[in-house]
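hiii so um. not sure if this is the right channel but i have a protein structure encoded as C-alpha coordinates and i wanna go backwards to a sequence. like what aa goes where. can anyone help
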Protein backbone atom coordinates (compact mmCIF):
# COMPACT_ATOMS: atom_id res chain seq x y z
CA UNK A 1 0.00 0.00 0.00
CA UNK A 2 2.78 2.45 0.78
CA UNK A 3 4.05 4.86 -1.86
CA UNK A 4 7.16 7.01 -2.12
CA UNK A 5 5.41 9.68 -4.18
CA UNK A 6 7.08 13.03 -3.58
CA UNK A 7 3.76 14.89 -3.79
CA UNK A 8 2.28 12.73 -1.01
CA UNK A 9 5.26 13.17 1.31
CA UNK A 10 5.32 16.90 0.67
CA UNK A 11 1.58 17.33 1.18
CA UNK A 12 1.59 15.38 4.45
CA UNK A 13 4.59 17.36 5.74
CA UNK A 14 2.70 20.61 5.11
CA UNK A 15 -0.16 19.37 7.31
CA UNK A 16 2.15 19.10 10.34
CA UNK A 17 3.39 21.81 12.66
CA UNK A 18 5.68 24.32 10.99
CA UNK A 19 8.57 24.13 11.43
CA UNK A 20 8.00 20.44 12.16
CA UNK A 21 9.36 19.07 15.44
CA UNK A 22 12.44 16.89 15.12
CA UNK A 23 11.80 13.15 14.91
CA UNK A 24 13.83 11.36 17.60
CA UNK A 25 16.69 9.20 16.27
CA UNK A 26 16.13 5.47 16.54
CA UNK A 27 18.83 5.02 19.18
CA UNK A 28 16.95 7.08 21.78
CA UNK A 29 13.54 5.50 21.18
CA UNK A 30 12.51 2.64 23.46
CA UNK A 31 11.70 -0.55 21.58
CA UNK A 32 10.70 -3.13 24.19
CA UNK A 33 7.33 -4.79 23.63
CA UNK A 34 4.51 -3.82 25.98
CA UNK A 35 2.29 -6.72 27.07
CA UNK A 36 -1.41 -5.91 27.25
CA UNK A 37 -3.91 -7.86 29.32
CA UNK A 38 -7.20 -7.91 27.44
CA UNK A 39 -10.47 -9.56 28.38
CA UNK A 40 -10.77 -13.01 26.79
CA UNK A 41 -13.29 -13.81 24.06
CA UNK A 42 -15.06 -16.20 26.44
CA UNK A 43 -15.45 -13.46 29.06
CA UNK A 44 -16.80 -11.11 26.38
CA UNK A 45 -19.34 -13.79 25.45
CA UNK A 46 -20.43 -13.88 29.10
CA UNK A 47 -20.83 -10.10 29.18
CA UNK A 48 -22.95 -10.17 26.03
CA UNK A 49 -25.06 -12.99 27.46
CA UNK A 50 -25.86 -10.78 30.47
CA UNK A 51 -27.23 -8.22 28.04
CA UNK A 52 -29.17 -10.90 26.10
CA UNK A 53 -27.10 -10.26 22.97
CA UNK A 54 -27.46 -13.22 20.60
CA UNK A 55 -23.94 -13.85 19.30
CA UNK A 56 -24.54 -15.88 16.16
CA UNK A 57 -21.06 -16.82 14.79
CA UNK A 58 -22.42 -17.01 11.25
CA UNK A 59 -23.08 -13.26 11.31
CA UNK A 60 -19.46 -12.53 12.26
CA UNK A 61 -17.76 -14.97 9.90
CA UNK A 62 -16.28 -12.91 7.07
CA UNK A 63 -17.54 -9.57 8.39
CA UNK A 64 -15.22 -6.67 7.44
CA UNK A 65 -14.57 -4.16 10.22
CA UNK A 66 -12.33 -1.09 9.76
CA UNK A 67 -10.99 0.66 12.86
CA UNK A 68 -9.46 4.08 13.50
CA UNK A 69 -6.43 4.45 15.80
CA UNK A 70 -6.28 7.75 17.73
CA UNK A 71 -9.13 8.44 20.15
CA UNK A 72 -10.69 5.14 19.09
CA UNK A 73 -8.18 2.46 20.12
CA UNK A 74 -5.73 4.85 21.81
CA UNK A 75 -6.83 7.85 23.85
CA UNK A 76 -4.25 10.64 23.98
CA UNK A 77 -3.49 13.15 26.72
CA UNK A 78 -3.70 15.97 24.15
CA UNK A 79 -7.36 15.28 23.31
CA UNK A 80 -8.59 13.61 26.51
CA UNK A 81 -7.79 16.16 29.18
CA UNK A 82 -8.32 13.91 32.21
CA UNK A 83 -5.98 11.18 30.98
CA UNK A 84 -3.31 12.46 33.38
CA UNK A 85 -5.62 11.72 36.30
CA UNK A 86 -5.22 7.98 35.75
CA UNK A 87 -2.81 6.38 38.20
CA UNK A 88 -0.45 8.93 39.71
CA UNK A 89 -0.78 11.53 36.97
CA UNK A 90 2.03 13.16 35.00
CA UNK A 91 4.78 11.64 37.11
CA UNK A 92 3.30 8.13 37.31
CA UNK A 93 6.18 5.66 37.23
CA UNK A 94 3.89 3.06 35.64
CA UNK A 95 3.83 5.07 32.40
CA UNK A 96 5.90 3.03 29.95
CA UNK A 97 8.80 5.14 28.71
CA UNK A 98 9.00 6.03 25.05
CA UNK A 99 12.60 7.21 25.27
CA UNK A 100 15.71 5.25 26.15
CA UNK A 101 16.54 7.75 28.87
CA UNK A 102 19.72 5.97 29.97
CA UNK A 103 21.29 6.95 26.62
CA UNK A 104 20.39 10.63 26.94
CA UNK A 105 22.28 13.47 28.62
CA UNK A 106 20.76 15.19 31.65
CA UNK A 107 20.93 18.97 32.00
CA UNK A 108 21.85 20.83 35.17
CA UNK A 109 18.21 21.79 35.60
CA UNK A 110 17.33 18.18 34.88
CA UNK A 111 19.51 16.98 37.78
CA UNK A 112 17.67 19.41 40.01
CA UNK A 113 14.34 18.08 38.68
CA UNK A 114 15.54 14.58 39.53
CA UNK A 115 16.09 15.64 43.14
CA UNK A 116 12.54 16.98 43.15
CA UNK A 117 11.30 13.57 42.00
CA UNK A 118 10.11 14.75 38.60
CA UNK A 119 9.86 12.25 35.69
CA UNK A 120 12.87 11.43 33.54
CA UNK A 121 11.22 13.43 30.75
CA UNK A 122 11.98 16.62 32.75
CA UNK A 123 15.60 15.65 33.43
CA UNK A 124 16.92 15.52 29.86
CA UNK A 125 18.94 18.31 28.22
CA UNK A 126 16.78 19.99 25.58
CA UNK A 127 19.74 21.50 23.71
CA UNK A 128 21.34 18.16 22.89
CA UNK A 129 17.93 16.48 22.49
CA UNK A 130 15.76 19.03 20.61
CA UNK A 131 13.01 16.47 19.99
CA UNK A 132 12.18 16.82 23.72
CA UNK A 133 11.02 20.45 23.38
CA UNK A 134 7.33 19.65 23.00
CA UNK A 135 5.08 18.72 25.95
CA UNK A 136 4.96 15.13 27.10
CA UNK A 137 2.23 13.02 25.50
CA UNK A 138 0.89 9.71 26.76
CA UNK A 139 -1.68 7.40 25.23
CA UNK A 140 -3.96 4.89 26.95
CA UNK A 141 -5.38 1.77 25.36
CA UNK A 142 -9.16 1.43 25.05
CA UNK A 143 -9.11 -2.02 26.65
CA UNK A 144 -12.88 -2.74 26.48
CA UNK A 145 -13.02 -2.01 22.76
CA UNK A 146 -9.75 -3.84 22.02
CA UNK A 147 -11.15 -6.85 23.88
CA UNK A 148 -14.40 -6.71 21.92
CA UNK A 149 -12.49 -6.47 18.63
CA UNK A 150 -10.37 -9.47 19.61
CA UNK A 151 -13.63 -11.33 20.34
CA UNK A 152 -14.96 -10.40 16.88
CA UNK A 153 -11.79 -11.61 15.19
CA UNK A 154 -11.83 -14.95 17.02
CA UNK A 155 -15.41 -15.37 15.80
CA UNK A 156 -14.39 -14.89 12.15
CA UNK A 157 -14.41 -11.13 11.48
CA UNK A 158 -11.73 -9.45 9.34
CA UNK A 159 -10.21 -6.41 11.03
CA UNK A 160 -8.28 -3.55 9.40
CA UNK A 161 -6.64 -0.43 10.85
CA UNK A 162 -7.27 2.81 8.94
CA UNK A 163 -5.59 5.88 10.38
CA UNK A 164 -4.56 9.38 9.36
CA UNK A 165 -1.39 8.90 11.41
CA UNK A 166 1.91 8.55 9.56
CA UNK A 167 3.19 5.08 8.68
CA UNK A 168 6.33 5.53 10.77
CA UNK A 169 4.31 6.09 13.94
CA UNK A 170 1.93 3.21 13.17
CA UNK A 171 4.83 0.81 12.60
CA UNK A 172 6.48 1.96 15.81
CA UNK A 173 3.30 1.46 17.83
CA UNK A 174 2.87 -2.00 16.28
CA UNK A 175 6.37 -2.99 17.39
CA UNK A 176 5.68 -1.79 20.91
CA UNK A 177 2.12 -3.09 21.17
CA UNK A 178 1.97 -6.62 19.73
CA UNK A 179 -1.80 -6.63 20.30
CA UNK A 180 -2.11 -4.28 17.30
CA UNK A 181 -0.29 -6.77 15.14
CA UNK A 182 -2.43 -9.61 16.52
CA UNK A 183 -5.62 -7.75 15.60
CA UNK A 184 -4.71 -6.28 12.22
CA UNK A 185 -1.61 -7.99 10.84
CA UNK A 186 -0.85 -6.32 7.49
CA UNK A 187 -4.38 -4.96 6.99
CA UNK A 188 -3.30 -1.38 7.67
CA UNK A 189 -3.78 1.94 5.91
CA UNK A 190 -1.70 4.82 7.25
CA UNK A 191 -1.79 8.46 6.10
CA UNK A 192 0.52 7.78 3.15
CA UNK A 193 -1.70 4.92 1.98
CA UNK A 194 -4.90 6.97 2.26
CA UNK A 195 -3.27 9.78 0.27
CA UNK A 196 -2.15 7.35 -2.46
CA UNK A 197 -5.69 5.96 -2.67
CA UNK A 198 -7.16 9.47 -2.92
CA UNK A 199 -5.04 10.04 -6.03
CA UNK A 200 -7.18 7.34 -7.73
CA UNK A 201 -10.58 8.85 -6.91
CA UNK A 202 -10.99 10.86 -10.14
CA UNK A 203 -9.95 7.95 -12.35
CA UNK A 204 -12.46 5.56 -10.76
CA UNK A 205 -15.34 7.83 -9.73
CA UNK A 206 -16.70 8.02 -13.26
CA UNK A 207 -16.82 4.28 -13.83
CA UNK A 208 -20.26 2.89 -14.60
CA UNK A 209 -21.24 0.88 -11.53
CA UNK A 210 -24.43 -0.42 -10.04
CA UNK A 211 -22.88 -0.64 -6.58
CA UNK A 212 -24.78 1.90 -4.49
CA UNK A 213 -22.08 1.86 -1.83
CA UNK A 214 -19.42 2.92 -4.35
CA UNK A 215 -21.67 5.70 -5.66
CA UNK A 216 -22.12 6.97 -2.11
CA UNK A 217 -18.39 6.64 -1.51
CA UNK A 218 -17.55 8.85 -4.48
CA UNK A 219 -20.22 11.30 -3.32
CA UNK A 220 -18.39 11.45 0.02
CA UNK A 221 -15.08 12.19 -1.70
CA UNK A 222 -16.68 14.87 -3.84
CA UNK A 223 -18.13 16.42 -0.68
CA UNK A 224 -14.78 16.27 1.15
CA UNK A 225 -12.05 16.02 -1.53
CA UNK A 226 -8.53 14.92 -0.57
CA UNK A 227 -9.50 14.39 3.06
CA UNK A 228 -7.65 11.93 5.28
CA UNK A 229 -10.88 11.63 7.29
CA UNK A 230 -12.93 10.48 4.28
CA UNK A 231 -12.48 6.76 5.02
CA UNK A 232 -15.13 5.58 2.60
CA UNK A 233 -15.93 1.91 1.89
CA UNK A 234 -14.34 2.37 -1.55
CA UNK A 235 -11.16 3.92 -0.14
CA UNK A 236 -10.64 1.09 2.38
CA UNK A 237 -11.66 -1.74 0.03
CA UNK A 238 -8.08 -2.80 -0.90
CA UNK A 239 -7.67 -4.02 2.68
CA UNK A 240 -10.65 -6.35 2.18
CA UNK A 241 -9.74 -7.74 -1.25
CA UNK A 242 -11.88 -5.18 -3.05
CA UNK A 243 -14.92 -5.56 -0.80
CA UNK A 244 -16.65 -2.88 1.25
CA UNK A 245 -16.36 -2.83 5.00
CA UNK A 246 -19.47 -3.64 7.00
CA UNK A 247 -18.58 -1.19 9.75
CA UNK A 248 -16.10 1.61 10.44
CA UNK A 249 -15.25 2.49 14.05
CA UNK A 250 -14.11 6.11 14.26
CA UNK A 251 -14.33 9.10 16.62
CA UNK A 252 -13.91 11.93 14.08
CA UNK A 253 -16.59 14.60 13.78
CA UNK A 254 -15.40 15.26 10.23
CA UNK A 255 -15.83 11.60 9.29
CA UNK A 256 -19.26 11.49 10.94
CA UNK A 257 -20.52 14.54 9.03
CA UNK A 258 -19.12 13.27 5.72
CA UNK A 259 -20.74 9.84 6.19
CA UNK A 260 -24.04 11.44 7.16
CA UNK A 261 -24.04 13.76 4.16
CA UNK A 262 -23.31 10.85 1.81
CA UNK A 263 -25.89 8.46 3.23
CA UNK A 264 -23.23 6.14 4.65
CA UNK A 265 -23.96 6.79 8.32
CA UNK A 266 -25.33 3.24 8.81
CA UNK A 267 -21.78 1.96 8.16
CA UNK A 268 -20.24 4.11 10.91
CA UNK A 269 -20.00 3.14 14.57
CA UNK A 270 -19.04 6.34 16.32
CA UNK A 271 -16.59 6.18 19.23
CA UNK A 272 -16.72 8.52 22.24
CA UNK A 273 -14.09 8.58 24.95
CA UNK A 274 -16.57 9.58 27.70
CA UNK A 275 -13.69 11.05 29.72
CA UNK A 276 -12.45 7.48 30.19
CA UNK A 277 -15.44 6.47 32.29
CA UNK A 278 -14.99 2.71 32.59
CA UNK A 279 -18.70 1.93 32.71
CA UNK A 280 -19.40 3.94 29.55
CA UNK A 281 -16.42 2.48 27.70
CA UNK A 282 -17.74 -0.99 28.49
CA UNK A 283 -21.25 -0.01 27.41
CA UNK A 284 -19.81 1.21 24.11
CA UNK A 285 -18.12 -2.18 23.63
CA UNK A 286 -21.45 -3.87 24.41
CA UNK A 287 -23.20 -1.70 21.83
CA UNK A 288 -20.54 -2.66 19.28
CA UNK A 289 -21.17 -6.34 20.01
CA UNK A 290 -24.91 -5.89 19.57
CA UNK A 291 -24.47 -4.03 16.28
CA UNK A 292 -22.17 -6.60 14.67
CA UNK A 293 -24.53 -9.39 15.76
CA UNK A 294 -27.63 -7.49 14.59
CA UNK A 295 -29.08 -8.02 18.03
CA UNK A 296 -31.03 -5.83 20.42
CA UNK A 297 -29.81 -5.74 24.00
CA UNK A 298 -31.26 -5.05 27.42
CA UNK A 299 -29.85 -2.08 29.33
CA UNK A 300 -30.63 -3.53 32.73
CA UNK A 301 -29.62 -6.70 34.48
CA UNK A 302 -25.87 -6.68 33.83
CA UNK A 303 -23.45 -7.27 36.66
CA UNK A 304 -20.15 -5.49 37.17
CA UNK A 305 -17.79 -5.32 34.22
CA UNK A 306 -14.32 -6.90 34.45
CA UNK A 307 -11.56 -4.71 35.81
CA UNK A 308 -8.61 -3.97 33.54
CA UNK A 309 -5.19 -2.42 33.95
CA UNK A 310 -4.57 0.92 32.29
CA UNK A 311 -1.79 0.68 29.70
CA UNK A 312 -0.16 4.13 29.66
CA UNK A 313 2.56 4.73 27.08
CA UNK A 314 4.75 7.73 26.35
CA UNK A 315 4.14 8.54 22.67
CA UNK A 316 7.39 9.97 21.30
CA UNK A 317 6.19 10.35 17.69
CA UNK A 318 2.93 12.16 18.42
CA UNK A 319 4.13 15.74 17.90
CA UNK A 320 6.52 15.27 14.96
CA UNK A 321 4.03 13.16 12.98
CA UNK A 322 0.77 14.85 14.04
CA UNK A 323 -1.44 16.13 11.21
CA UNK A 324 -3.22 19.32 12.27
CA UNK A 325 -5.77 19.14 9.47
CA UNK A 326 -7.43 16.43 7.42
CA UNK A 327 -7.29 18.19 4.06
CA UNK A 328 -4.42 17.43 1.66
CA UNK A 329 -3.17 20.12 -0.70
CA UNK A 330 -1.33 18.62 -3.66
CA UNK A 331 0.00 21.99 -4.81
CA UNK A 332 -0.57 23.92 -8.02
CA UNK A 333 1.99 21.92 -9.98
CA UNK A 334 0.56 18.51 -9.12
CA UNK A 335 -0.26 16.25 -12.04
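sure thing!! here u go:
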Amino acid sequence: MITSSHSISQSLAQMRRQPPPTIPPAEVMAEQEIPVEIISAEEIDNIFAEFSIKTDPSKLDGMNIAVDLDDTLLFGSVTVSNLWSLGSGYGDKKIVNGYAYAKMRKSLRGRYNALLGRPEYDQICRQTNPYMEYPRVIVALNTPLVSALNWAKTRGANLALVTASARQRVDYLKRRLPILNDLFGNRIMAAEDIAARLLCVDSEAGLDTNETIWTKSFSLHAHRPNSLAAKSPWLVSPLFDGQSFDMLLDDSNVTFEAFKQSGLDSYLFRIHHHNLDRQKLWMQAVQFGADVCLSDYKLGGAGGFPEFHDTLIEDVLYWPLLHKDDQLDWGADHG
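oh and The domain at 39-79+141-314 is CATH 3.40.50.1000 (Rossmann fold).
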